[in-house]
Amino acid sequence: MKIDTQWPQHFYLIAGRTSAQEEKGDISPQGMGAKAYNLREMANLGLPVPPALVIGTTYTANPDACLPLLATHGMPALEVAAGGIFGDERRPLLVSVRSGAPVSMPGMLETLLNVGLCDRTVSGLLRQTGNPRMVWDAYRRLVATFGSVVAGIPAAHFERLTEDVAQGRDERQLDFSEHRALVRSYLDCFLSCTGQDFPQEPQAQLHQAVLAVFRSWHQAKAQAYRKMHGLDDGMGTAVMVQQMVFGNAGLRSGAGVGFTRNPVTGVPGLWFDYLRNAQGEDVVGGRRRALGQEAGMPPECLTQLEEAARLLERHFQDMQDLEFTVEEGCLYLLQTRAGKRSGIARARIALDLQEEGVIDRDAALAQTRDLTAGELSHTRLAVKDAPAMQVLARATPASAGVVSAEVVLDADSARRRAAAGAMVVLVRADAETDDIEGLQVAAGLLTCRGARTSHAAVVARQLGKVCLVGCETMQVDLALRELRFGNQVIAEGAYLTLDAEGGQVISGVAELVEEPDLQLLSRLQALRLGAEDAGEGCIRVAGWARVD
């Protein structure tokens, strides 16, 4: 679409196959953030992407400077692309406000959904959609997220209000009147915690949300992640304002996150979690349990997702991590990026992509160059189903391997015990990225809730940690510093074994064995010997070849 000649530098519009005033901006992951850059690539491939406005990374140092341009140029252009009017009482455009650093930082920065909903715009959205449950649910979510991210209200305040109404039910089972009542309770909570009313002016919501996402670049967990991975603090984040699509619009709607190949084993084929009648944060936030392909995704959307996965792998020449929403049977893609994976998956994916002709031998060598023999081994229980082995619970594996270690219940305890030389497993109610510093020193992660694709599980997999999520029969009692599995009590400091191969939580220390993946090692050696025949330097390491 055409944008006026005064289109501001470092602002970008993603709408269909075209982009606004490219000559005025840095069209690169460094300038517009990797998330927006890849979103633009998907749009140019003809994939279903909601229109988005991107505020470049340069504004991280002075976010207030972007606000006048957002009002005068950015939002009017997005309104034209999306066919709605932000803040309008009859045809309100709602937006998400998302972060987007030049390098993927899963779950370390903030996101706000449903921005633009207020008492004035609710009626227009009700008329537009005819779906009161979705509208009041979206409003409830906005107040809670805005309260937490922007105003600093502990999320537990809103969760307690929800629990009082839900009485043990899933939030998705609440009807519109219950969601409407929760909105009023949330608004009262916001006022009592901050001394101010929740902002009823959509423009004020948007400006505060944008500033909060820019600020999240500086929060503790983001700084810890950058330090852990040697990332430059100065690169900053972009902010993406995108037309909302609603996964909470009913049973033919939902939100999903997944990979174009299994990130644990490397096996080809979609590997994803999907939650019906939900929004994206329900899947990645670590507080909900989501299911895989069997969870009721419309078949036509699954077919479209499979086709998109194949196209994106060939375009980006790598396994992809996707976020998507289904709204009333229509698929929308919200993000793609190179997927984080285990060492074994890294090797198999590179080898398979080469054999499929997606990448050449040099690329496969580069992607597997620094893998060690230890990363290409499976750790498993020495004796399965031993009579003395006490299985406490079942959980969903989010990584590979088995580990026996001492239980710790928070990140501070994990750091303290690890500094004393102990091997620890971090046990939490939710799979949350706030625990990043504890996860860094732990050998494993076990959670009551969360999904395989929760941001914390993604980070754990990247760090090579054993990870089990969704252990629903476990209770974490922080007051008593203990875990309960039915009548069985495990105190902090006791030992647990996490078996991600069998999805088991086992009491005590188990005997473990490590087995090399001989088939994978053989394939890698053939790749590297081929490089040697081609004249490249090659050294053998523990029965396999390593290229330098």
List the defining traits of the structure above.
pyruvate; 17 helices; alpha+beta; D-amino Acid Aminotransferase, Chain A, domain 1; 36% helix; 25 strands; 548 residues; Dna Ligase, domain 1; eight-stranded mixed β-sheet; disordered C terminus; six-stranded antiparallel β-sheet; ATP_grasp_subdomain_1; 4 domains
Notes on the protein architecture:
36% of the residues lie in helices and 23% in strands. The chain has 4 domains: 11-242, 2-Layer Sandwich (Dna Ligase, domain 1), CATH 3.30.1490.20; 254-338, ATP-grasp fold, B domain (D-amino Acid Aminotransferase, Chain A, domain 1); 343-371 and 517-547; 378-515, Phosphohistidine domain (Glucose Oxidase, domain 1, 3-Layer(bba) Sandwich), CATH 3.50.30.10. A hairpin with a 2-residue loop joins strand 19 (482-485) and strand 20 (488-491). It is built from 17 helices and 25 strands. It has 548 residues and is an alpha+beta fold. Keywords: Kinase, Pyruvate, Transferase. Pfam families: PEP-utilizers, PPDK_N. InterPro entries: ATP_grasp_subdomain_1, PEP-util_enz_mobile_dom, PEP_util_AS, Phosphohistidine_dom_sf, PPDK_AMP/ATP-bd, Pyruvate_phosphate_dikinase. This is Pyruvate, phosphate dikinase.
